[in-house]
Every structure is written in C-alpha cells, then in structure tokens.
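User: Hi! Is it possible to get a structure for several chains at once, not just one? Here's what I have:
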Amino acid sequence: MGRTESIFKNKNSKGQKVNIGYITPEYPFAGITVPLACMLAENNVDIIELGVPFSDPLADGPTIQKSSYNALLHDVNLDKIFNYVKNIREKSKVGLVLMSYINPILSYGVSDFLNNAKNSGVDGVIIPDLPVEEIEFIKDKFDLSGVDLILLAAPTSPLERLENIALHSRGFIYCVSVTGVTGVQQNNYIEDSTLRFLKQVRDVSPISIAIGFGLSNAAQLEKLADYTDGFIIGSALIKSLEQADDKEAAIKSAQKFIKSVY
Amino acid sequence: MNYFNQHPDKRGYFGQFGGRFVPETIMPALIELENAYYKFAQTTEFKRILSAYLANWVGRPTPLYFAENLSGILGGPKIYLKREDLNHTGAHKINNALGQILLAKQMGKKRIIAETGAGQHGVATATVAARFGFECKVYMGAEDMERQKPNVFRMELLGAEVRAVTSGTQTLKDATNEAIRDWVSNIRDTHYIIGSVVGPHPYPMIVRDFQRIIGDELKQQSLARFSKLPDAIIACVGGGSNAIGAFYPFIEDENVRLIGVEAAGEGVETDQHAASITKGRPGVLHGSKMDLLQSAEGQITPTHSISAGLDYPGVGPEHSHLNEIKRVDYKTADDIYAVKALKLLSEKEGIIPALESSHALAYLIDNIQDFNKDEIVVINLSGRGDKDMASVRKYLADNPTLFEEEKGNG
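Assistant: Yes, the chains can be modeled jointly so their relative placement is included. Here is the combined structure:
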C-alpha cells in the first residue's frame, strides 16, 4: 500500500477526513516552499499537493494561473520541485503529491520523471489534462515505480466512465466539485447534485475519494463530510498568502486560514 | 497509399499525434460531439442543408482563377488561385463554422463560444451564430484585438460579445485557453466551435471534414479544366485548417506535391517565428499532441508572425503526421516576403490577399525555380487582406528602405 492510501486508511479509520492543501512552489515569495509545507504538515494537513507550473494551465482559474505564472518567473521547474520534495520529506512524513499538466512531464521524459519523483519522495501525481482514455502509455510505468497516478472524476462523468476511473486510479480519486476551473466559488452553497455525484463515485470506487475545486470554508466542508473521505483546498489557500509583505507573514496568514478550515 | 478511413484512428490519433488531453469534465462533451458528428453529419439531410447554405449563403463553389499576370512576371509555372477569399465573411473559416453550428443545433446547444486570432474565425462564428440564433462569445487576445480592430467591430455588429484575453501572451494561444476554461464551466449548454484543425479529438477530424470542400472542389475544377490534377498545391499553415482542407482529398494522389508554409516571422533562426513543424518538437497543448514550440522544460514559448492567424505555437496533429510520413513538405516564409507577396498580388492581379495566404504565395515566389513552366501550381488563397491593412501599413512605414531598395534593383 502506498503512503497516500495508508494516510486515508489511517485517518478514516479514526473517523477523520484527510486534509489536502495545494501550494504553488515559490509563491508568493522565493524560499517559501519548504517552510510553508512544513507549517501545513504541522497544522493538520495530511497531504500536500505541489503544483508544477505550466505556461498554459487550462483547468485553472485566475488565482492558480497567477501563482503558476509567478513560479515560472522564479524559474521553478521539475528538478527544483524534486529538491523541495526531498527537503520536505527529510523533515516530515506528510503525503506529497504533484499536480502537473502532461507537457512538462513529457518534456522531462516519463521514466526520468518517475525515477526522480520516487527517489525524492513523491507519493502520487495528479495530471488534470490526462483523462482515463490517455493513461495507457504511462500507466504501467507508474505502477512499476510505485508512484500513484491519481485520476480525476467530474460531475459530468457518466457512470461507466466513473467505473473506469475507479478501476485505474491509485491512491485516491480526485473528485471535481464543480463543472468549471479551479478557484473560490462566489456562492458557498453546495448543490445537491454535487452530493449525488460524490455518492455515485463512492459507490463504484474501491479506493478513497477526495473532493476539490472551489472549497474555501469550514461550512462547506461540514456539508460535504458525509460524502467524502478527504478535502482538497487550493485557490483559497493560495489567496491567503497573497496579502502578506514577506515570507514569514505569508506563512502566518496561511496558518490562520488553514486552522479555520481543517 | 491507403490513407483514408484510418486517419484518425478510433482513439483520435494520426500516427503518434492527436488524442484527447483534456480535463475529465470535458471528456463526455467530446464523446457527445463525436457521436453527434457520426450520427448527423453523414446523413443525406444534413449534407443537403449544408450544401444549400454553402451555395446560397457562403457563395460556393469558389473560383479557381488563373493568375496570368503573376505567372508571366515570375516566368515559372502556371499559377492558379483557389479563391477562398471570395467566401462570405472573406475566408475559408466560414466552411467550418457553418458545419459546426448545424451540429450544435442538432445537439440542442444554446450557446456558442470560439477563440480567434486574426478575427476571421471569430467573424465566421459570429456570423453563423447570428443566422442560426445562438448566443455567442468570442475570446480574442488583447494584442490581437489591437491588430485587428475592424474584425472586432464586425463581430460586435453581428451580435457577438468579444472578450479581451489579457493572460499570457494575449494572442491566439491564450484566447484558446480562455475559451476552453469557459467551455469547462458551461459544458452542458455550450458548443465550442474551434477554428482550426487543432484541439482534442474529434475536432481535428470534424474541422478537416468541413474544410475538405476546398480540395474536393479543386479536384473537380482541375479535372474539368486541365483534364488532370494540379502538379502542386501550396497553402499556409498556422493551425492548418485551410491547408488540410485543400490537401486532404489529394493525399492518396502521390503525384500531387503538397506544400504547407509556416510563418517564419523574422526568420526561423531567430526566436521570433511561429514555425511549429520546422522548429518545434512533439508535445501536448490544447488537448492534442502535436509539434509545439516549447522550451526544454516543456513550457510553451512565445511566437511571432506579422499574421495574427498564423501566430500559434502548435499545429494540427494531422499536419505533424503528414510531415512525419513525408506526404506533405513543410516550408516557411518570413514576414517580409509575405508582405512583398501581398503587394505583388495586389498590384498585378487586383487581389489583396490576407497576410496568412500571402505566406503561401511568398514561398512560391521565392522558390519559383523548383517548378517547371508546364506545371500547374495552385495557391490556396485562404482569405482576403482587408483586415490586415493596418498591419501592412505599419510594416511598410517601419521598413521603408527594404522596399525602396527593391524598387531600385527592379
């Protein structure tokens, strides 16, 4: 069993949810990545999702587009990210997954990517532009490396697709809460259709599920709690960093935010 | 050569290129579109309606015009122009927009979105949306809106909302990102009319099939007038929809030379160009695997062309495949030669071509020695140049000496 899966087993067996937090490396300040991740790990975040910046993040809303662009300005690349992962891993047992569009991985070379991911301590990878139809060329390499290929499910996915996603996803299934891009929703209301969607995924899935996209406060999480094994907070966490004047203040502000939700 | 019916394959691949690299949210809509396409677009009824609009509203078939003056001056082959510039809205883009809106109607969609570079596809989409009563939003890079002001006004006059895209490089690539984000968010009632043979399967196939009328007509016209096929067909390639439309029916006719011309901007040896096949390598952007201008780390790099319609870092996956199997030759033309070609055609034939199409002509002019006198060469004149007047005027003003020297020598 991989680390991600055991984190879910462990927390869920205690009746707790798995808390996942998304950060973009070096955003909003250079040097923030490792201390920010460690702070999150000490504040009830079980899995950290590190965003690999891409020039054309088409599944992301304005917040993550901006942080991703900023990371590219700081020359963040996969080699640097593997280093951050190594540093975090030395200090913490927190789960570490990467969120990357497929092109930077292809460009790096899939085998090299998986070797270095494994060696640095990456537990899983989420690839938002790789639907289950396209995993064939990459799937066996992931299975062999022991790094989880975490697939996404969407509210638009019909049952037979959900079954196929459940069959092939490793670690957990990333359930997208809205038909849309990442980002804080104006409306905090959780639709009944979202709950029905989560129930449907859970019914077909042999592994744990987590919900993400648009989550930003404790009230939303409470409404979703019965329907999911974990939560993913991204844009709202990124936003909590943005008002600060320096690295330390940003980490403090993120700590305050994360304590209010997780 | 047995090409037809195998490209794309069932998974939407042309050799190693193509596929569907999109967020899961979009996948069901792509499958719905593919099913709708197979169910409706092949029926006699659909074809009858499409043909009627193409004939009476778009103005097809477009003429195959013998450019006698140009042929005489260049002293090379007989040059013919396939006059896609004479289509309603001034370019080949309407062929695809019309086909797709009829599909959208069949699928019961209410809203249309599109991306546009030069504005030609945006205008074509706004036009069909107006005719068939759809709400329409067109995403356009802020820089392109500046370069193509008249087209922005045309779209607005047609009732479309033009949304300025200020992210990234503010050109076609970023407009496409934004259109895809809109589609992800409104997937149930919205159809995305992609303007070129790019994007996830089934788009490269659907757009090609709606554009192949260019090549189908060309074949008929050639046989009727010359009792043979042309010796060569030359078309510009950005995403590559006019080129694939002209080339596709000839792919198995191996004696017909097919030449795609990419935008070399300030030269392929600089980093100011948009020559994806010539200088790129395989990668994934906008849902498809294709030749891509990218950094060593897989970040998409900025492109440049004087022609907004060619200013795109990728190219249709079928072109990447046709390059790999060496059925089509992909060449380039610089900004300056495109502008010179535009001037020459305007002065000698009374036809102002689009800057995009001028690249095809520029290649021919520059390589006229490669063609025999008795050969028939067809340039796909994909659009008219009215939209480019501001860009051309600026280019001529910025580079006065280049053209004066030419006069002195000539």
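The interface with chain B takes residues 54-59, 61, 65, 69, 72, 77-78, 101-108, 128-134, 151-158, 161, 165, 176, 179-181 of chain A (CB under 8 Å). Chain A is about 50% helix and 15% strand.

User: Great, thank you!
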